[in-house]
């Protein structure tokens, strides 16, 4: 059905009046070219006072005689859903609706441990100068793994950069992570991007880029396209609370809402955008509090509680599938790591604060719960940790020894085919490099 | 059925004034969305139409030939402020032809995402002057999407249409020609037609091209430029300049509405001075056709490049520099640039700002006298 209204300024006053159920309202002039319409046809003095409204498009705003300022809520705000407390105890009277089975619980835990191990050793490898850059997701393991577990493999993911756990959940190996960080010849990006800018076509995970928040309106567009194509999956975009200050956040929320895009906006609110604490980032009720302003439902959840994250994501996903429209999820956590290997976070925050949050380690919290359920043992713990360490060290050595991609990749993929001017530039660079091999790294094949 | 708002949002009084002036008063539905017959023979037939109708033809054809083609932007539903999308919503439905909220970075981000899913968004930025909020999405995202992912992902289906150039009274923000900003961005293609026939053929090529294309439409030509345009499908290749007038004394290079200025200047100096000018319409600004221009300059020994955009670091600088190297031994005079001044685009001083015919003629004479 084509929804197309006559006239440049939309429905007539009569149509609007009919829509809001005020059929007896006076006919209003429509030639003004303005969508601001009805002013002051409240009951005259002496007549029976009927409720009067400011009729605005398809909304009916009641007039009031008291001039009030609508203050934002300064305390509280949207509550935060959780299942497990900091000690790993279930806080729900009836937890039956918010459990997972043993197989899923173990899988989530194993992935969180592997993620933590990989982050630890990759971080150290970077500090030793073995590759150029790294970012960990300490403190957010439950956010990422819990949400990944709540999604479907066919859901398209547009990530920021601190969500490599989603790829791990979908099957990316330690070796593949390491190959990307080293930019060797097996890197899917062909060694073109900085470390941690992962991407996998076969895992429905769009390649990460550094500019913050650009992926949000892209995810909305992807969700819209997939809806037209009747694709059997939704779109999910991850972003931090700092990125949510970008204009692209506003663009994406508004587009997704007005164009009814089936997607989840998954915000990781970890309290810090590099050195900027979240109270310098916004004064409203976090990110979730913005949902209603865009006409979008929202969920706030404890991002350090893997069970809560899993269920919040599952419920958000069901909502999106059922309503074919977007939802916003804000996962509250704390970035216990430095922002990146180029950052020393002790310069802008108290060690005590970091220590206090580290003690609330989401991985340990989930482990206690698993042990309490009888699904995990100390012995399994030490085996998993030891084997993960061994495996990660091995892939780092392997990735390091691999050759880089050939020089030809400099000019490939800029366009679908290499244009003439670029071919010429490649030939010039190649000829120069061949004559001056000593000036260039020897692990890059020139031809 | 997709849920969406049904409001037609105006940008503001200035834009309304400008666009209504440009649209020739009340924007009414035009007759430009005629059917396209696939019958043999019909393909060859042509009719006289203006530039916005030629654009409309190309858009209609693209929507017909591929269900993945989408058209969206500000005010495109009712036909667009320049009538380019007139009749398309009624014909192809509001799922494929729709208004977006008023936000250029959103339009581009949304388009990149849809293109990444294999769709072909042909998006409109209402005026090229307002493309800058989307600069990040175009330059950092669209242009680099394929390269940075090692070829795994691409947004090659994306085409960005935007009206550009002087219009007589457009002032700072309804007159700009920002093509040079995009020429500096590897991964993009940048195109500007100089008449209705090329507009249709180049736009069809741009939509089908598997790379993001920024397609500039000289808005002063929307109604004023009329020529025979074939019905049905035909394309004009990207990356190929056109020699629109042959000559032997000097090569004049321009694009968009400036091609008309150069042609008129060429006729005038032929008549009055006996100077024979070769006029080249560049058509594609990135990647541009070095060979056609170098070949011409090798023959004429002289080069003049002219564009409306400011002189410094304009597209002319790239052409003059490259041709100076390629044709150094053939040049008999310094290559010249006749361009807009290095100022914001002025309102009442527009006649002084623009590189008009008289200035081009004076520079042609200077070159020949060198």
TrEMBL record, chain A:
This is 3-methyl-2-oxobutanoate dehydrogenase (2-methylpropanoyl-transferring). Residues 110-405 form the Dehydrogenase E1 component domain. Keywords: Metal-binding, Mitochondrion, Oxidoreductase, Potassium, Transit peptide. InterPro entries: Alpha-ketoacid_DH_E1_comp, DH_E1, THDP-binding. Its cofactor is thiamine diphosphate. CDD domains: TPP_E1_PDC_ADC_BCADC (cd02000). Signal peptide: none annotated. It comes from the Eukaryota. It is found in: Mitochondrion matrix. Belongs to the BCKDHA family. Its EC number is 1.2.4.4. It catalyses: N(6)-[(R)-lipoyl]-L-lysyl-[protein] + 3-methyl-2-oxobutanoate + H(+) = N(6)-[(R)-S(8)-2-methylpropanoyldihydrolipoyl]-L-lysyl-[protein] + CO2. Its main location: mitochondrion. GO terms for cellular component: mitochondrial matrix. GO terms for biological process: branched-chain amino acid catabolic process. GO terms for molecular function: branched-chain 2-oxo acid dehydrogenase activity; metal ion binding. The keyword Metal-binding applies.
From TrEMBL, chain B:
Its cofactor is thiamine diphosphate. Residues 49-224 form the Transketolase-like pyrimidine-binding domain. GO terms for molecular function: branched-chain 2-oxo acid dehydrogenase activity. The keyword Transcription does not apply. One of its GO terms (biological process) is response to nutrient. Keywords: Oxidoreductase. It catalyses: N(6)-[(R)-lipoyl]-L-lysyl-[protein] + 3-methyl-2-oxobutanoate + H(+) = N(6)-[(R)-S(8)-2-methylpropanoyldihydrolipoyl]-L-lysyl-[protein] + CO2. Pfam families: Transket_pyr, Transketolase_C. CDD domains: TPP_PYR_E1-PDHc-beta_like. Coiled coil: none annotated. It is an enzyme of class 1 (oxidoreductase). Its EC number is 1.2.4.4. SUPFAM superfamilies: Thiamin diphosphate-binding fold (THDP-binding), TK C-terminal domain-like. InterPro entries: THDP-binding (IPR029061), Transketo_C/PFOR_II (IPR009014), Transketolase-like_Pyr-bd (IPR005475), Transketolase_C (IPR033248). This is 3-methyl-2-oxobutanoate dehydrogenase (2-methylpropanoyl-transferring). It comes from Chloropicon primus.
């Amino acid at each position: 059905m084509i929804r197309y209204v006559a006239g440049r300024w939309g429905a007539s006053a009569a149509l609007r009046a009919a829509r809001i159920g005020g059929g007896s309202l006076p006919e209003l002039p429509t030639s003004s070219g303005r969508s601001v319409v009805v002013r002051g046809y409240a009951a005259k003095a002496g007549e029976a006072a009927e409720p009067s409204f400011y009729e605005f498009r398809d909304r009916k705003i009641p007039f009031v005689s008291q001039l009030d300022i609508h203050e934002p809520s300064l305390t509280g705000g949207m509550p935060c859903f959780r299942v497990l407390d900091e000690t790993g105890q279930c806080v729900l009277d009836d937890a039956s609706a918010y459990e997972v089975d043993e197989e899923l619980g173990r899988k989530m835990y194993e992935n969180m441990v592997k993620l933590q191990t990989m982050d630890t050793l990759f971080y150290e490898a970077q500090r030793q100068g073995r590759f150029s850059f790294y970012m960990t997701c300490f403190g957010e393991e439950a956010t990422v793994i819990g949400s990944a577990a709540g999604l479907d493999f066919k859901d398209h993911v547009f990530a920021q950069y601190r969500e490599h756990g989603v790829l791990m959940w979908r099957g990316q190996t330690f070796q593949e992570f390491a190959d990307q960080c080293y930019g060797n010849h097996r890197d899917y990006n062909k060694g073109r991007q900085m470390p941690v800018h992962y991407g996998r076509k076969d895992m429905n995970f769009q390649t990460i880029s550094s500019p913050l928040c650009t992926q949000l309106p892209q995810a909305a567009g992807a969700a819209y396209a997939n809806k037209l194509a009747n694709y059997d999956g939704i779109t999910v975009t991850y972003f931090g609370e700092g990125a949510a200050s970008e204009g692209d956040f506003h663009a994406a929320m508004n587009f997704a809402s007005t164009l009814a895009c089936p997607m989840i906006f998954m915000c990781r609110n970890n309290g810090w955008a590099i050195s900027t604490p979240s109270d310098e980032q916004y004064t409203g009720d976090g990110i979730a509090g913005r949902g209603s302003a865009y006409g979008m439902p929202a969920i706030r959840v404890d991002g350090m509680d893997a069970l809560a994250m899993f269920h919040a994501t599952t419920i958000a996903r069901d909502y999106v599938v059922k309503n074919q429209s977007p939802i916003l999820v804000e996962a509250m956590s704390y970035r216990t790591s430095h922002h990146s290997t180029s950052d020393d976070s002790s310069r802008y925050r108290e060690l005590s604060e970091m220590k206090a949050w580290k003690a609330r380690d989401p991985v340990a919290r989930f482990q206690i719960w698993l042990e309490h359920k009888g699904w995990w043992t100390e012995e399994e713990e030490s085996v998993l940790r030891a084997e993960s360490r061994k495996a990660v060290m091995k892939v780092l050595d392997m990735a390091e020894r691999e050759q880089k991609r050939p020089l030809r990749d400099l000019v490939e993929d800029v366009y679908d085919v290499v244009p003439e001017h670029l071919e010429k530039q490649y030939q010039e660079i190649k000829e120069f490099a061949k004559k001056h091999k000593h000036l260039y790294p020897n692990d890059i094949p020139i031809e | 059925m997709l849920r969406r708002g049904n409001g037609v949002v105006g940008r503001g009084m200035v834009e309304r004034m400008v666009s209504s002036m440009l649209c020739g008063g009340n924007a009414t539905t035009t007759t430009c969305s005629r059917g396209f017959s696939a019958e043999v023979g019909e393909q060859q037939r042509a009719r006289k139409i203006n530039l916005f109708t030629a654009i409309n033809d190309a858009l209609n054809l693209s929507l017909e030939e591929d269900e993945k083609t989408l058209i969206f932007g500000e005010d495109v539903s009712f036909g667009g402020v320049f009538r380019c999308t007139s009749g398309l919503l009624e014909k192809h439905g509001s799922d494929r032809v729709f208004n977006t909220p008023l936000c250029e970075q959103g339009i581009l981000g949304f388009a990149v995402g849809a293109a990444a899913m294999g769709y072909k968004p042909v998006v409109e930025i209402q005026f090229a002057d307002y493309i800058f909020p989307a600069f990040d999405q175009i330059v950092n995202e669209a242009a680099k999407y394929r390269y940075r992912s090692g070829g795994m992902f691409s947004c090659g289906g994306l085409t960005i249409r935007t009206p550009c150039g002087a219009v007589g009274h457009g002032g700072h923000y309804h007159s700009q020609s920002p093509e040079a900003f995009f020429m500096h961005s590897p991964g993009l293609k940048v195109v500007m037609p100089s008449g209705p026939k090329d507009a249709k053929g180049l736009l069809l090529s741009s939509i089908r091209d598997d790379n993001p294309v920024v397609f500039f439409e000289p808005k002063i030509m929307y109604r004023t430029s009329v020529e025979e345009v074939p019905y049905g499908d035909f394309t004009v290749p990207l990356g190929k300049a056109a020699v629109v007038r042959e000559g032997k004394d000097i090569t004049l290079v321009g694009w968009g509405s400036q091609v008309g200025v150069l042609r008129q200047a060429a006729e005038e100096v032929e008549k009055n001075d006996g100077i024979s000018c070769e006029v080249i319409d560049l058509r594609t600004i990135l990647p541009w056709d070095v060979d056609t221009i170098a070949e011409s300059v090798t023959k004429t020994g002289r080069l003049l490049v002219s564009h409306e955009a400011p002189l410094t670091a304009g597209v002319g600088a790239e052409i003059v520099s490259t041709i100076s190297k390629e044709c150094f031994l053939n040049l008999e005079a310094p290559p010249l640039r006749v361009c807009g001044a290095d100022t914001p685009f002025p309102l009442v001083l527009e006649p002084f700002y623009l590189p008009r015919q008289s200035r081009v003629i004076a520079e042609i004479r200077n070159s020949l006298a060198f």
